[in-house]
Design a protein that fits this description.
alpha+beta; efflux transmembrane transporter activity; 13 helices; 7% strand; Outer membrane efflux proteins (OEP); 4-stranded antiparallel sheet; MdtP/NodT-like
Length: 521
């Protein structure tokens, strides 16, 4: 025979269970990663994947190994970072936490079972009760919708963090490649400066140069050595930043990079509406919008439960000794005697207005950052093109003319060395300008919220490569010391003749050294 109490509980639980199951959420197969992956495929051009076990990590190692077998490209660096960066993997797991909260919000609280047994004076009283939280049941659909919005917001936040890592990785790649290129050029300059300083010392010992000229070449050599050491330090730091973003260690950290930065595109990107693009595409703007909507929904829930914190309904069955069994129901309601819920409502309203203003701030900042990034991009492109099309060709022409005049005995070795010093400064500045352009290009994509179409091609000629250091005379064997001249009665003409002879000997040594250096290049 069925217990009347249990029958009443079942009658009460049936509609309750139906209402609860109608808003019940279940775990998704992908855990929210599909949305993040699609977003990154569109914005960063690379996939995202959550590594759940050792098998996933072994598969990732097999996927990364071919990328490290050749000089690492910027796109491959982004792919590795999105899959192998451990901090980013930890961020991916936030999706699992948010989805668990969503599923939990859609589940009704467990019922409470009560049992009382009283005995005394020859009488026995037994009371049984089964209670359900009606307040949680009534607000469960709204709470599920709120957690659903929060889950969607978490997807945007995770995708935004992954896109930030992708942008940082692309920037780090440009800095690492430019650093290695600068080190290579700085070492060439240091080697040429060492040869110049050696030549200056020999010519000084031969009496052909003054102490001032020798000191000038020595100072240039010292500065070149310091610049090479400084470039090596910066290049090592840039490579380590890239390695950390890639999540590589051990033998994998010995990856190779290209020898030089990509060439400047023939023409820059011409973007008409950078502000509108930023507002449409940036993930932080979308996340702030969803945060405001989530806060508004939370405000509605707070107002709905302003006067009801506890509302429980249950079935009761009581029997006293030999008396007939009494059945009924029990309703527990919190009386808003001291707390009318006004403080909670005011707090929710304040949080909502705070969210609205933060959304406005995010939109204003997105507009400003887009304008700033596009201006920096165009200015960096113009500067890099100026070095490529104007400064470097002029420096090369000037270097060629200087060498021609030197070969014609119209310029001294000192003037040839001075021109070489000026050329090294121009080439180093050209490398820096090209690096700044590519960094500005990465910043523009980050400010607009995703990858941009390639720069349009122009019918211009291909840019000339950045020249190597101008030929700098290498040290030549010092001439054998001449015997002491006999005293001459007329020193003035003799000094003039010696000056001309010294210039010819200086030219002969410098020309021979320049030819050797040119053959070496």
């Amino acid at each position: 025979m069925k217990s009347p109490t249990m029958a009443a509980a079942r009658r009460l639980a049936a509609p309750t269970l139906a209402l609860a199951l109608s808003g019940c959420a279940a775990f998704s197969p992908d855990g929210g990663m599909d949305a993040v992956d699609r977003s990154l495929q569109a914005r960063a051009g690379a996939p995202a994947k959550l590594l759940r076990n050792d098998a996933d990590r072994r598969a990732l190692a097999e996927q990364i190994r071919p990328m490290l077998a050749h000089p690492l490209t910027a796109d491959d660096a982004v792919r590795i970072a999105l899959l192998n960066n451990r901090a980013l993997q930890a961020t991916y797991w936030e999706l699992g936490i948010a989805e668990a909260d969503l599923v939990q919000a859609g589940r009704l609280q467990n019922p409470a079972f009560g049992y009382q047994h009283k005995q005394g004076g020859g009488a026995t009283s037994i009371e049984r009760s089964l209670a359900f939280n009606l307040a949680g049941l009534i607000t469960a659909p709204l709470a599920s919708r709120i957690e659903g919005r929060l889950f969607e917001q978490t997807k945007l936040r995770v995708a935004a963090e992954a896109f930030r890592v992708a942008s940082d990785t692309r920037r780090a790649w440009y800095e690492a490649v430019a650093g290695a290129q600068s080190v290579d050029y700085a070492r060439q300059v240091a080697g040429a400066a060492d040869a110049s300083a050696d030549l200056a010392a020999r010519m000084r010992n031969a009496g052909n140069w003054s102490a001032y000229d020798q000191a000038r070449e020595g100072a240039f050599h010292a500065d070149a050595m310091a610049d090479a050491a400084r470039a090596s330090k910066h290049a090592a730091a840039a490579r380590e930043r890239l390695t950390r973003l890639l999540g590589l260690w051990g033998d994998d950290a010995g990856y190779r990079l290209p020898d030089r930065l990509p060439d400047l595109p023939p023409a820059p990107r011409d973007l008409a509406d950078v502000e509108g693009t930023a507002l449409r595409e940036r993930l932080d703007v979308q996340a702030a919008t969803q945060d405001t909507e989530h806060t508004a929904a939370s405000l509605g829930l707070t107002r709905a439960t302003r006067f009801i914190n506890v509302l429980e309904l249950g079935a009761v069955r009581e029997r006293d000794g030999g008396e007939p069994v009494r059945r009924g129901y029990e309703l527990t309601l919190e009386i808003p005697l001291f707390d009318w819920g006004g403080a909670r409502t005011r707090r929710a309203e304040a949080v909502y207005m705070q969210s609205v203003n933060r959304l406005a701030e995010t939109a204003v900042n997105a507009r400003g950052e887009a304008r700033e990034a596009y201006f920096a991009y165009r200015a960096s492109y113009d500067l890099a093109r100026h070095y490529r099309d104007v400064v470097i060709p002029l420096r090369k022409q000037l270097s060629d003319e200087t060498l021609l005049r030197y070969n014609g005995m119209l310029l001294s070795t000192f003037e040839l060395l001075a021109d070489a010093r000026e050329q090294t400064v121009a080439v180093a500045a050209a490398i820096e300008a090209l690096k700044e352009y590519w960094l500005a290009d990465a910043d523009l994509e980050a400010a607009l919220g995703g990858r941009l179409p390639a720069a349009p091609a122009a019918p211009a000629a291909a840019p000339e490569p950045v020249p190597a250091p101008a030929p700098v005379p290498a040290p030549a064997p010092a001439p054998a010391p001449a015997p002491a001249p006999a005293p001459a009665p007329a020193p003035a003409p003799m000094q003039q003749h010696d000056h001309q002879h010294d210039h010819q000997r200086d030219h002969g040594q410098g020309q021979e050294s320049a030819q050797k250096h040119g053959a070496h290049q």
